[in-house]
Amino acid sequence: MLLIQMWMVVLLAQADDTPCRQRGKPEHPQLQMDGDIIIGGIFSFHNTWVESEPTFSTEPKQPQCESLSLREFQNAQTMVFAIEEINNSTAILPGVSMGYKMYDSCGSIALAIAAAMSLINGQEGSFRDSNCSSPAVQAIIAETSSTPTIAISSSIGPLHIPVISHFATCACLSDKTKHPSFLRTIPSDYYQSRALAQLVKHFGWTWVGALCSDNDYGNNGMATFVRAAQEEGICVEYSEAFFRTDPSENIVRIAEIIKTSSSKVIVAFVSYSDMEVLLKELSLRNVTGLQWIGSESWISDSNIATGEWQHILRGSLGFAIPKAKIRGLKDFLLSIHPSASISIYNKLWETMFGCLLPIPNNKEDYNFCSGTESLSDIQNQYTDVSELQIANNVYKAVYAIAHALHNMYACGNSQLNDTCKEGAGETEPWQVLQHIKKVNFSTLHGEEVFFDENGDPAAKYELLNWQDGKEGKTNFVTVGVYDASLPPHHQLSLNNFTIVWGKDQEQVPVSVCSESCPPGSRKAVQRGRPVCCYDCVPCSEGEISNTTDSINCITCPQEFWSNEQRNRCVLKNTEFLNFEEIMGILLMIFSLLGATLTVGVAIIFFVHKDTPIVKANNSELSFLLLFSLKLCFLCSLTFIGRPSEWSCMLRHTAFGITFVLCISCVLGKTIVVLMAFRATLPGSNVMKWFGPLQQRLSVLAFTLIQVLICVLWLTISPPFPNKNTKYYKEKIILECDVGSAVGFWAVLGYIGLLSILCFVLAFLARKLPDNFNEAKYITFSMLIFSAVWITFIPAYVSSPGKFTVAVEIFAILASSYGMLFCIFAPKCYIILVTPEKNTKRHMMGKMPPKSL
Q1: Residue 1: what pLDDT?
Q2: Exposure string (b/e) for 684-695, b if CB count within 10 Å is 16 or more?
Q3: Given this chain, do its domains 27-50+61-187+327-334+379-450 and 582-680+690-720+733-843 carry the same CATH topology?
Q4: N vs C: which end of the chain shows fewer Cβ within 10 Å?
Q5: Hey, CA dihedral for 711, 712, 715, 720, is it positive or negative?
Q6: How far apart are CA 781 and CA 822, in angstroms?
Q7: DSSP string spanning 306-323?
């Protein structure tokens, strides 16, 4: 056992002396330059790749890259330009030279990871030290799309090597728990997705189609857009994802969906290389006239804008990184030439001029390049420096690394260039990462560069519109800006430029599932369909909606009602019995007529006060009765007009007191009749107990009881004016609330009690012998009075609005007229028409008995 342990210790000691070695053959960069500090670069020099079929008998071959990307080559050359510009500058990193190594990923995740591993490990067969811990580069600029960048960042993130992307916009890369060493010079798609949602909302498009690349860039961006769209009330009719390498059946299916859909606006969160594949299929189907809303990946791509399908995208809108200018870049791009040592330059040359560079000992007849061609004669994505949105991001990424190194070496604290150079050999990537996070500088062109806590720059976009230019060229016209640092309602702003819409429309296209609901209606969602598909339901009575596409109708305040259009609350019509309407005028006429007749009767009685018929009927009580009847007629006028606090108290109390006074007088007259006939009986002395004084006191006593009831009523809970909104919804009834129902019915009950007592006594005296039996007429008047007030109760309770008051006035007038005519009409008839009967002899004459 001891021998085995000693043998293992020897083996471990030997293993410590063995350097780390790479697996497989090392990959060589497409472009490289030595320097004190090396920066890595991973670009998709080619758009696609072809993988060889595995044979399982030979070593697998690397995928073959195809279709050179001129835009990516421009980005790579911008990195070279920035490094050389820094090396030639004395203001930043004096005495320190920067180098670079650039790899081609061809847009492949596997090749991107392989390139990242090559940048970390170096090109040698073994690592530079025995600890296997010394990376070959201090920072990496990568990649053009989000999915390869995620793979790179996830792979080398634990090593704390900074990765700065110029075009990876996936919001997922802002998660520092998964990507601790990632930064970027392009805004996150989180802001762009929300900006697209605000743009769609701004133009009133609530029914849109959605397309995205089937990768991290497209799927994450579209997910954020859909969430933001739902918050803005926008519905997505369809959402489809695809990738340029998908089977043609999938691309055809999506093209058919676009062609047959009802939405006229399409939000395309698609990479430029995927967009080309879809546009070819749409062009075959002649799908035009749609309003395209694009992401920054393709909206500013001049290759798509000048292609054969540009008519499909005419009028497109979308957000792009602000344009930039880089002085000297144009000349640098045009300065390259074919080189035997740099094969990628040769491929570029052959692609640009459509020829082949001569191969030694090759005598076949090809279109060979002479090598003297001039790039200045070519107009394409590589030579075009009018936009430079993405190239500028590469430029800023290089300068961010340089400023971080400059600050880390404290180059600004010494006039000696050796200070910078001495620190260059002691650099660790994690130190560079910490200083990159803190950089805050302005480029030579005045653009401020900094990173937030998530490694993202400030989000600012230009809103581009595709407009036709000269000779069929598409111009990218800036028609607005989006600045995420501003408040939400001010982030999107449009300038005064005229926007060109799809299919050359002059007005903003309409893309809705259902037409807007006008004011006066509300939206009712259709069962089983998105919320943007709805029916317009008119608001109910008493409800309004004063905005377009209102979700709910608003109930008008209590004193308001909806107009006919249901878009505005108007004051309700107020209803009360007034002096200007026909019913009020008629009641007032009958009231005044009754008062006039009463005065007339009083005058007749006063003129003939000395006649027997007047004397025989207790002239004092008769005049008091006439006075009370006049008050009864006049008190009905207090029920007409707008109710007020005083009129409400006056009308009920005046009515109650005058009617009790009236009934008390009638009751007194009835008792007098009864007592008068009892006084004629032998030995009767009853009249001394009911003389004129007792009559006055009885009337006063009966009336004071009603006065006491009214005082208690007014003290405890008096009547008050009330706005009744319950009976009619569309109008307000101005009425007098009785306050205390007990007080109100106590007043009526007391009047009823006296009237019943009066009726009973009059009924008992109806057959007393006399030519003129007043009790008989009092009985008739009390019958009428009782009938009127018995029918008044149900009529009063069931009558609506002002008719309640009219019923009460009618009851007062009817009962007053009944007493006036039944009691005084026969007397006036004798006085005026048959004065011969107005004698004492006739009054004392015996009449044959009659039945009532």
Answers
A1: 40
A2: eeeeeebeeebb
A3: no
A4: N
A5: negative
A6: 5
A7: TSTTTTTTTT-EEEEPPP
User: What's the CA gap between 77 and 390, in Å, rounded?
Assistant: 12
For residue 301 the two structure tokens come to 């791509």
Q: Which residue has the tokens 């002649």?
A: 286
- Lookup: tokens for 522: 């509300």
Which residue matches tokens 């990424």?
A: 397
Q: Got the DSSP string for 646-661?
A: HHHHHHHHHHHHHHHH
Strand partners, 483: 460
- 823-851: average pLDDT: 69
Contact 140, 40 (CB under 8 A): yes
- Helices 645-679 & 802-819, crossing angle to 10 degrees? 20
Contacts of 382 (CB under 8 A, 6+ apart): 70, 71, 73, 74, 333, 348, 352, 375
Assess contact for 801 and 779: CB atoms under 8 A.
Answer: no
How far is CA 553 from its chain centroid?
14
SS3 793: helix
- H or E element, residue 257: helix 248-260
What is the enclosing helix (H) or strand (E) of 246?
A: none
In the beta sheet, which residues pair with residue 240?
211
Q: What share of the chain is helix, strand, coil (3-state, %, to 5)?
A: 45, 15, 40
**Measured distance CA(435)–CA(407) in Å, rounded:** 7
Average pLDDT over residues 461-476: 86
pLDDT tens, residue by residue, 732-783: 888 888 888 888 888 888 888 888 887 777 777 656 555 445 667 777 777 7
Provide, rounded to the nearest whole percent, the portion of the chain with pLDDT above 90.
Answer: 27
Q: Is residue 94 helix, strand or coil?
A: coil
8 A C-beta contact, residue 748 and residue 652 = no
Q: For residue range 564-617, what is the model confidence (pLDDT) as tens digits?
A: 889 999 988 888 888 888 888 898 999 999 889 989 888 888 888 777 777 766
CATH architecture assigned to 582-680+690-720+733-843:
Up-down Bundle (1.20)
Contact (CB, 8 A) for 140 and 116: yes
Among 134-148, 302-316, 408-422, the range scoring the smallest mean pLDDT is 408-422
What phi and psi, each to the nearest 5 degrees, are found at residue 133? -130, 10
- Separation between Cα atoms, residue 816 and residue 70, nearest integer Å: 110
pTM: 0.63
Helix segments in 565-640, DSSP class H: 582-607, 612-616, 619-635
Provide the residue type at 544 as one letter: I
Cβ atoms of 107 and 145 within 8 Å: the answer is: yes
Stretch 229-240: mean pLDDT: 92
CA 654 from centre of chain? 58
* Residue type at position 49: W
Comparison of pLDDT for 24 and 478, the residue scoring more: 478
Q: What is the CA radius of gyration of the chain?
A: 53
- Say what the pLDDT of residue 847 is: 47
Domain ranges of the chain: 27-50+61-187+327-334+379-450, 189-320+459-504, 342-373, 534-573, 582-680+690-720+733-843
Mean pLDDT value of segment 493-518? 86
Quick one: pLDDT at residue 700? 85
- Going along 491-626, which residue ranges are E strands? 492-494, 521-525, 534-538, 543-544, 554-555, 560-562, 569-571, 573-575
Residues sharing a CB contact under 8 Å with residue 442, sequence separation 6 or more, in sequence order:
448, 449
Tokens of 640: 């007409």
In this prediction, residue 135 carries a pLDDT of 66
Hey, what CATH topology would domain 27-50+61-187+327-334+379-450 get? Rossmann fold (3.40.50)
Asked if 500 and 315 touch (Cβ cutoff 8 Å), the reply is yes
Superfamily of domain 189-320+459-504: Response regulator (3.40.50.2300)
Size of the chain in residues: 852
Highest mean pLDDT among 30-44, 414-428, 795-809: 30-44
Confidence of residue 23 (pLDDT cuts 50, 70, 90): low
